[in-house]
Amino acid sequence: MKTVARQRGRASDIDPVDIAVGAHIRALRQARGISQSALGAYLGVTFQQIQKYKTARIGCRPAICIIWPHI
User: Fold this and answer.
1) DSSP letter for each residue of 1-60
2) Of the candidates 28, 26, 67, 64, which has an alpha carbon nearest to the alpha carbon of residue 45?
3) What is the pTM (predicted TM-score) of this model?
4) Domains in the chain, ordered, with CATH?
5) Of 10, 46, 47, 53, which is most buried by a Cβ count within 10 Å?
6) What does the pLDDT profile of the chain (71 residues) look like in tens digits?
């Protein structure tokens, strides 16, 4: 049996915590003048992952939430 990853399709599927974390990542990144590509490279993820965190399409990994403020 194949398992298919389900993407969040509706606004009701998005956790408010993910929205807040994504907004915080975006605000800090912009305040520090860091591009999504540069931030992704530093954290070991693609810029597409950073975009998905920012828009709350996927939840941010806890390790990234811990490392990010110290950049």
Assistant:
1) ----PPPP-SGGGS-HHHHHHHHHHHHHHHHHT--HHHHHHHHTS-HHHHHHHHTTSSPP
2) 64
3) 0.62
4) 15-70 (1.10.260)
5) 53
6) 444 344 555 556 777 888 888 888 889 889 999 999 998 898 888 989 888 887 777 767 666 666 666 66
